[in-house]
Amino acid sequence: MESVDLLYKAIYILAIFGITLLIATYSTYFERKIAAFIQDRVGPNRAGPAGLLQPLADAGKLFFKEDFIPAKSNKALFILGPGVAMLVATMSSAVIPFGDRLIVGGHEIVLQAIEVNIGVLYIFGVVSLGVYGLMIGGWASNNKYSLLGAIRAASQNISYELAMGLSLIAVLMMTGSLSLREIAEQQAGFNWNIWYQPLGFIIFLVCAFAECNRTPFDLPESEAELIGGYHTEYGSMKLGMYLFAEYINIFVASAVMSTLYFGAYNFPFMENLRQAISDPILANNVVTLVGVVAMFTKIFLFIFFFMWVRWTLPRFRYDQLMKLGWKILIPLAILNIILTAGGILLKDYLF
Amino acid sequence: MEPLSNRRKQVEKKEMTFAERAYLPAIAQGLSITLKHFFKKKATIQYPEQTRERSSVWRGLHVLKRDEEGRERCTACGLCAVACPAEAITMTAGERKVGEENLYREEKYAVTYEVNMLRCIFCGLCEEACPKAAIFLQDDKIAPARFERDEFIYGKDRLVEPLKTTETK
């Protein structure tokens, strides 16, 4: 790898890191705004124009609060918990293709931090590490509510990861690749996976909600019964990191769903746009930039959907959660695999 | 058993249809309801900047009026205190001394005049009882929230209309 490439990679990774943090910060603002709008209120509007500086005010408040560590807790693990949650959350956006390639001065710049041929596995591995943050934090707090929250987080993640993986297998059978870039490229134009995998998408979506601990699956932190669950004992910026990690996870889950099912950076009439511009390099760059906008539009729509659902549905009961995971989603996912396999065989037979 | 009223209904436990068991149609319905509220006009009034419009007969905080020459109109006759159903008004009367003609309109005046805003029900009967047109419930002021009970007893310092100071400003 040339040094120019290395430099570009470093800049790109920093940019993605910054964008991830920025989106997570403003997710808190939009969460509150959307909650307010759905409940016929106006939401935060005092800090800055339309309340846009509210996240900064919140962060400032969290930074200046007392950084409290309970006396009977395991101090090292107590500090490690939110760190792990945050680290793992920020790691997962590395393999997501946010755009196709730009050509600048003869150099080809791929808009993806790391291109690995096992991108999907990487995401799954890193995301399932995320639950360690909650587990460690909940365990180290030495508090029964925290421990219950941590146990719930672990069992819920295990249950729903199965169905998630199985629903993903159907996609992998169609694309024949584990690389997120290849999956994205195969969905050129409007040939998105959602048209072939509606059932798989719904299963994946439900599991993504469960993996992100979002309502209706927010049992690990259910503030009504477990007074905050795994983060009961946390305060100050450690609590902030947990909440932040949750929003980053939402962002990553949205990005993964857009990539796997909604054509990543592809948009309808992409080729028409490419042919409409005579200069091939300019055409490529314009299409790529519009693609990046399309990708982020899809991500934002998914983030909005996450929040929209949160302010609509009540929380599941714990036995209902387990029943849905094991008795409904997993059989459905297996059915989806069989249907997909049948479809692929039929296509081979007919054409 | 004989029914006590004719409103008794036979309860039956129906088997849920597939659509009901699938849960997704109900979720879609719920989402559409919340989305409708998302675009609804908000009822919030941005209070300090914006105040709710009050009725034209709205009664606010009391004021003790002065006449055209800036003299207090109140003669401490006590009719307002008698009329007050909540017994919120107390006063002590005093005699005007020589040289105070520019302060009080008549020979008798109120040395103290107190309205307990925790007792007051803002009925406006004091306003109706006053023969000297001295007390009014103004329409632009309210008794604000305070921390101490003592602070709700409004004395003359807060009730009497301030002198019009148009000169030397």
UniProtKB/TrEMBL annotation, chain A:
<feature type="transmembrane region" description="Helical">
    <location>
        <begin position="192"/>
        <end position="210"/>
    </location>
</feature>
<dbReference type="InterPro" id="IPR018086">
    <property type="entry name" value="NADH_UbQ_OxRdtase_su1_CS"/>
</dbReference>
<keyword id="KW-0812">Transmembrane</keyword>
<keyword id="KW-0874">Quinone</keyword>
<comment type="subunit">
    <text>NDH-1 is composed of 14 different subunits. Subunits NuoA, H, J, K, L, M, N constitute the membrane sector of the complex.</text>
</comment>
<comment type="function">
    <text>NDH-1 shuttles electrons from NADH, via FMN and iron-sulfur (Fe-S) centers, to quinones in the respiratory chain. The immediate electron acceptor for the enzyme in this species is believed to be ubiquinone. Couples the redox reaction to proton translocation (for every two electrons transferred, four hydrogen ions are translocated across the cytoplasmic membrane), and thus conserves the redox energy in a proton gradient. This subunit may bind ubiquinone.</text>
</comment>
<keyword id="KW-1003">Cell membrane</keyword>
<dbReference type="InterPro" id="IPR001694">
    <property type="entry name" value="NADH_UbQ_OxRdtase_su1/FPO"/>
</dbReference>
<keyword id="KW-0520">NAD</keyword>
<keyword id="KW-0830">Ubiquinone</keyword>
<feature type="transmembrane region" description="Helical">
    <location>
        <begin position="287"/>
        <end position="308"/>
    </location>
</feature>
<dbReference type="GO" id="GO:0016655">
    <property type="term" value="F:oxidoreductase activity, acting on NAD(P)H, quinone or similar compound as acceptor"/>
</dbReference>
<dbReference type="Pfam" id="PF00146">
    <property type="entry name" value="NADHdh"/>
</dbReference>
<comment type="similarity">
    <text>Belongs to the complex I subunit 1 family.</text>
</comment>
<keyword id="KW-0472">Membrane</keyword>
<protein>
    <recommendedName>
        <fullName>NADH-quinone oxidoreductase subunit H</fullName>
        <ecNumber>7.1.1.-</ecNumber>
    </recommendedName>
</protein>
<keyword id="KW-1133">Transmembrane helix</keyword>
<feature type="transmembrane region" description="Helical">
    <location>
        <begin position="162"/>
        <end position="180"/>
    </location>
</feature>
<feature type="transmembrane region" description="Helical">
    <location>
        <begin position="6"/>
        <end position="29"/>
    </location>
</feature>
<feature type="transmembrane region" description="Helical">
    <location>
        <begin position="77"/>
        <end position="99"/>
    </location>
</feature>
<dbReference type="GO" id="GO:0048038">
    <property type="term" value="F:quinone binding"/>
</dbReference>
<keyword id="KW-1278">Translocase</keyword>
UniProtKB/TrEMBL annotation, chain B:
<feature type="binding site">
    <location>
        <position position="74"/>
    </location>
    <ligand>
        <name>[4Fe-4S] cluster 1</name>
    </ligand>
</feature>
<feature type="domain" description="4Fe-4S ferredoxin-type">
    <location>
        <begin position="65"/>
        <end position="94"/>
    </location>
</feature>
<comment type="function">
    <text>NDH-1 shuttles electrons from NADH, via FMN and iron-sulfur (Fe-S) centers, to quinones in the respiratory chain. The immediate electron acceptor for the enzyme in this species is believed to be ubiquinone. Couples the redox reaction to proton translocation (for every two electrons transferred, four hydrogen ions are translocated across the cytoplasmic membrane), and thus conserves the redox energy in a proton gradient.</text>
</comment>
<dbReference type="GO" id="GO:0051539">
    <property type="term" value="F:4 iron, 4 sulfur cluster binding"/>
</dbReference>
<protein>
    <recommendedName>
        <fullName>NADH-quinone oxidoreductase subunit I</fullName>
        <ecNumber>7.1.1.-</ecNumber>
    </recommendedName>
</protein>
<feature type="binding site">
    <location>
        <position position="130"/>
    </location>
    <ligand>
        <name>[4Fe-4S] cluster 1</name>
    </ligand>
</feature>
<keyword id="KW-1278">Translocase</keyword>
<keyword id="KW-0411">Iron-sulfur</keyword>
<dbReference type="Pfam" id="PF12838">
    <property type="entry name" value="Fer4_7"/>
</dbReference>
<dbReference type="InterPro" id="IPR010226">
    <property type="entry name" value="NADH_quinone_OxRdtase_chainI"/>
</dbReference>
<keyword id="KW-0479">Metal-binding</keyword>
<dbReference type="GO" id="GO:0048038">
    <property type="term" value="F:quinone binding"/>
</dbReference>
<feature type="binding site">
    <location>
        <position position="80"/>
    </location>
    <ligand>
        <name>[4Fe-4S] cluster 1</name>
    </ligand>
</feature>
<dbReference type="InterPro" id="IPR017896">
    <property type="entry name" value="4Fe4S_Fe-S-bd"/>
</dbReference>
<keyword id="KW-0004">4Fe-4S</keyword>
<comment type="subunit">
    <text>NDH-1 is composed of 14 different subunits. Subunits NuoA, H, J, K, L, M, N constitute the membrane sector of the complex.</text>
</comment>
<comment type="similarity">
    <text>Belongs to the complex I 23 kDa subunit family.</text>
</comment>
<feature type="domain" description="4Fe-4S ferredoxin-type">
    <location>
        <begin position="111"/>
        <end position="140"/>
    </location>
</feature>
<keyword id="KW-0830">Ubiquinone</keyword>
<dbReference type="GO" id="GO:0005506">
    <property type="term" value="F:iron ion binding"/>
</dbReference>
<feature type="binding site">
    <location>
        <position position="123"/>
    </location>
    <ligand>
        <name>[4Fe-4S] cluster 2</name>
    </ligand>
</feature>
<dbReference type="GO" id="GO:0050136">
    <property type="term" value="F:NADH dehydrogenase (quinone) (non-electrogenic) activity"/>
</dbReference>
